[in-house]
Amino acid sequence: MVYVCKLRYSSVGLIDGFRLPSALCARRVFRVDFRYWVTPDPRLYSFRCQKIKCNLEVHLLHPKTLTMAIETLKHLTILPQSTYIDALRFLPPLSALDRYIVSASFNSDSDEASISIHSFNTTNSPSLTLQSSFPSSSRVTSLKVAQKSLQNPLIAASTITGSIHILFPNPIDASFQSEVSVPEKTLHLGSVSCLDLQENGSECVSVGEDGRVNLISVGDSALDYRRVFDSKGLVSYTAARWASPTEFATGGLGNALQWWDLRRAGGPVSQFKGNWAQGATSGIVHSIDIHPSRKHTCVAGGSFGSVFAWDLRRPQQPIVLSGIDNGETATCISESDVWEVQYDTFTSASDHTNLSSKGVLPVMICSEDGILAVLKQAEEPAELLAENCAINCFDIDRQNPSDVICSLEWESIGLLTRA
Amino acid sequence: MPGILTPSGDSSSIIPYSPEPNTPTLYTLHHDLKPPITPRISISWSRGNSLRVTLFRPLTTSIDDEPGGKVVDLKLSGEDVDTEINDAARWRRIAYGSVSPFAHLQNKKNAMAALSELRHSAPYDGEWSKYVLEYSKEINSLLGSKKTSLPSLIEDPKTVLKNVEEPSSLKAGWELLEIFYANKQSHPWIPEQLVDWLSDYDALFSGQMPSVHLRLVEFQADLINIQAVENEPAYWQAISSALAVGWLDIVVKLLRLHGSYQLNQLGTRETENGLVEAVAVLVSKMPRMRANLPSGKLGECYNNKSDFMRAWEKWRAQITKLDCSAFWLQCSHNQTKESLKNLLQILLGNTGTLSSATCNWVELYMAHFLYIRPFTSGLESMYVLAQKCIQLKPASSLHKLMRLMLGILEENTEVVLAECSRSFGPWMIAHATELLTAGSVEAEILLKEERDNLGGISIEESHRLVYAQVLSSHALTWQIAPIYLISCVKHGVGLLEILLYKQPAYHSQVLLKNIEICRMYDLDNVSSNAMKIAGVHHWKHGRKGAGVFWLQQARDEIRLNRIAQKLFDFVGKSISDESFEQWEGLIELLGSESRTAGGLEFLHKYRDFKRSLQQIRDGVLNDAARKAGDALILLMKNPSTPQRFWLPLLFDSLKLLNWQERPLLNVSQTNLLLNKLQELSVARLRPDFVEVGLPPQALSSVRLALATNLGRAILEE
Fold first, then answer.
1. A122 closest CA partner among A72, A77, A172
2. Which Gene Ontology CC terms are recorded (chain A) (predicted)?
3. Residue B229 confidence (pLDDT) above 80
4. Has residue A340 got a pLDDT over 80?
5. What is the DSSP letter of B684?
């Protein structure tokens, strides 16, 4: 009898004198073949855990939820690379037929970082072909793409040494046509932790651990920049996301979010630091997303697997989608850092009907313990991938939302197609 | 390490080892410092095999815009043991891929050990070998696949050898171990498995010694230029060699190239063609003692010994019959006749013919298995046979795979270990020990026995530690080293702690990784230390918020209190003016719980107080004034409020003390404040008292205000 089940734990304990779960299994909520375990029946196992007061819980998943999760994934290809992928994005279409992705990679042997464009071939065996490459001065911390209306797309990248590069790819051969950049030590002291491009690519906001918030206006040949705020290091920012042409949200230490309005200078318009239970206050927000149609809600992901939505209209009440301290209400898909959150634009026909009634739209997340999943409010999360290594980032194709790319810690890129 | 490496020629050396000729390597340092540079240099080991070189400028000639020195990392190029896989990215891929099978096997091992403890039964049962085989197959698939290039629609008759991707000796070595140690179920078929193994990896021998593969490659290159193949001795030589090592499909394919098959000659060479075809059929019908054959390979499989025996006898009878046939006399082509007869001798197992058809001892060994002793079983008899073959075909130097094979046949685990370590490197040996110990009690004792000369650890553990060391020397693989370290009972956890301490905690991504690993292995101590380091680093570099955050995470009250003092200096200067908004964020971060904030709790209350005062300044509000008064009392009561803030606080709230409408503080509250003021006056007499930048009459005006307030409060009560 094989039980597929989910083990939840908050610390690895010693059971019967040996360490359980072992290294890999300790990584994540995982599926176990219980034939190999001490207790053949997981319910007994759960009982045993309670008895020795080890923080292990066994949940028997309903078989249906699991099969559903598996069904949603139609195709998965993992392409090994020879470099560490720091970030990747789908590029808005350069021409009608070709699809491209842009990736920021780091070669540890030569200590070289680069931003490159690959053409993305989705036939029976998906593959990536390198089109062009741009050498970056240092490792890329954040990579965003945007498209001015009916014009060529542009790529913005920030680096660990503090420089910002805006690249314009050539639509004919996907080479890099031109580049404008702000050198290091101009905008930020040290690393830029995140940047975000406006939808039309005209402005870019950058934040850093040094507590500066900068606004960069993108011109064709030069960049104009100004400082929106400088907390002089008293507050560090780790994530940023535009909400409208004049508003954006930032995230930082202590699971805090800030809302900024360019029309009102001198600091954030609104701050969020929810009434977290003990423990969750100590997290870091790693990523924020704001849905273009629901600008009042931003969804954020950070430490300890916490994913929550912040509604500006109810600023002190976070809607927890996943996390450890939410009691009985929400699920906990991961207990490690959630590296990226994005609203999932891919919905099947059945989902359309009840979307409007939902508070928070479906959100895709990727985490340190190798989970790529879609979270829906008040529903069991749908796990797309459960890898042995961290999934550092992912991107959903805007034109074709069933396609997802993700970068795995073990120097590879995953290409997924959902059914 | 087992076997200390000594210079070659020394009789005491366990493994013959020839160090590379000692030519010093020159490395150039790239630093941006302008000359002159004094020879003040400090060198220390950095991560892995890179050196950290610190260059100092002379102190006397310090120029302001020039840095005082520079730290450069210098990567020393290491030599790889296995030169075939010199591609570092490919090595890492193997390292990543082998983590999961290894961890799963360890997991099962732990579980089974616990299970046997519960049942008081033997630690191993039949199931274990199944897991080991599973593990071995998973690792094997990592090392490269036997993918052939896509078969073209029109098969070129002149392509004898298929284009296979270059085989790696690492994979060959692993498969050899798998055949002998992991695949217990198919032990009766070891000879056939070895034949298959050789057909996959014979090419590896070509570089070092003659081999059948090399002979076939050479022949194939000439084949295009040859008109009538049957006249060429190379053709017959290629056939007999391929037949001797059992590559039957190639033999049949080559035989069908014989000129007598051509339509225009079929009439005149009918008998000759019949003989060739008869041999080809006999070859393709050869009985094989094995379960099944991969597609494209020839022969007839027999699962059990008696069936095989019967078929074998029958087949040999057919060969003998053909050998004595009268048709040979009618065959006019002399070379064909002689060579076909020679092939029949190979099939009949003529030692001399086999010896001349093969190129090295392993090939001869396989020929013996195929045609003379198909029932060879047991390592002892296999070893005797191998010795015989080496005598027949001596080689000046043995290939590493041959040495490995001999070590296995000899049942000498130490030799196998030494070969794995020497020829294939730490990855191989760390993973192969699982195969070696599977089911062999002696090997298990040898590998798991704790040895004093290894510092009290077992051989197995020492190899794992070495491999973990290799992993942790690379920036991208260090995070998988913990999985190997944790499987080491004695020194694993200690070394894991060292590994984690060595990571640069001030790099936020590395810090988060560090914390994650600590969380997995219950190393709270290590992670809190890393957080402390990060906190202090951020603090020093002006990122006060991040510094406070990490120190809070580490629950380091001592440092929080220490930096609180520094922060107060900063606060004292800036907080009274309008720039208080900057502090909002940090105060939010601190939260309202005093436990985590340490001395910084004061800031939170101070903010509330300031906010109320601000409101009063904006417009007179009784409510706000009362709140401010309460906040003031709270602040003054709180032991965490630093003494030097008392006077400024009171001075700031002069307006509250002199509130027009009614006294805001009652008698006891006013008394408290007066007491504090008195305490302050006493403290002022001490030499270590620090004056705050307030007007000199501040103290007296506060005292006056308090006295007035006391009077009004008494009257009101």
1. A77
2. nuclear pore outer ring
3. yes
4. yes
5. H
Look-up of token digits 């015989």: B388
Report whether B379 contacts B368 (CB < 8 A).
no
Q: HEC profile for B598-638? A: HHHHHHHHHHHHHHHHHHHHHCCCHHHHHHHHHHHHHHHHC
User: Amino acid letter at B490?
Assistant: K
Identify the closest residue of chain A to B98 by CA–CA distance. Answer: A388
Find out whether the peptide bond into B287 is cis, omega within 30 degrees of 0: no
Tokens encoding B249: 């499909």
Q: Please, which pLDDT band fits residue B265 given cuts at 50, 70 and 90?
A: confident
How many other C-beta atoms are found inside a 10 Å radius of the C-beta of residue B12? 6
- CA distance linking residue B66 with residue B145, whole number of Å: 56
> Residues 72..131 of B with a Cβ closer than 8 Å to A: which?
87-90, 92-93, 96, 99-100, 103-104, 106-108, 110-115, 117-118
Q: Where are the beta strands (DSSP E) in B144-204?
A: none
Instruction: Give pLDDT, residue A125.
Output: 78
* SS3 call for A20: strand
What is the number of other CB atoms lying within 10 angstroms of the CB of residue B696?
7
A85, HSE (Cβ side, Cα atoms, 13 Å): 28
Residue A19: list chain B partners with CB under 8 A. 110, 486
Amino acid at B208: Q
Cβ–Cβ below 8 Å for A231 and B585: yes
Average pLDDT, chain B: 80
Amino acid letter, A267? G
Average pLDDT over residues A317-322: 83
To test the contact with chain A by mutation, choose from B110, B135, B518, B581 the residue with the greatest count of A C-beta atoms within 10 A, namely: B110
Q: CB B593: neighbour CB atoms within 10 A? A: 12
SS3 assignment, position B576: coil
Angle between helices B441-448 and B459-472 in degrees, nearest 10? 60
Distance CA B193, CA A199 (A): 62
Task: Enter the pTM of the model.
Answer: 0.81
Name which of A25, A83, A273 is nearest B588 (Cβ-Cβ). Answer: A273
Spatial contact of A152 and A168, defined as CB atoms under 8 Å apart: yes
Q: Is the pLDDT of residue B528 over 90?
A: yes
Question: Rg of the Cα trace of chain B?
Answer: 42
Tell me the C-alpha to C-alpha distance, in Å, between residue B648 and each of B211, B497, B611, B629.
94, 48, 16, 15
**Residue position matching structure tokens 């004919």:** A172
Structure tokens at B424: 């294939």
The two structure tokens encoding residue B141: 């698939």
What is the torsion angle, in degrees rounded to the nearest 10, for the CA atoms of residue B386, residue B387, residue B390 and residue B391?
-140
- Region for residue B365 given its phi and psi (left: phi exceeds 0; alpha: psi -120 to 50; beta: otherwise): alpha
pLDDT at residue number A242? 95
- How far apart CA B107 and CA B117 sit, in angstroms, is 15
Question: What is the chain A residue with the closest CA to B115?
Answer: A38
| Chain mean position to CA A12 | 26
**Could you count the other beta carbons within 10 Å of the beta carbon of residue B332?**
11
- CB contact at 8 A, B317 and B306: no
Q: Is B507 exposed, middle or buried (0-12, 13-18, 19+ CB in 10 A)?
A: middle
According to DSSP H, which parts of B619-697 are helical?
Answer: 622-637, 646-652, 654-657, 667-684
Residues 6+ apart with CB under 8 A from B366: B191, B194, B195, B198, B244, B245, B246, B358
Q: What sign does the CA torsion over A106, A112, A117, A118 have?
A: negative
**ipTM for this prediction:** 0.85
Burial A193-221 (b: 16+ CB within 10 A, else e): bbbbbbeebebbbbbbbbbbbbbbebeee
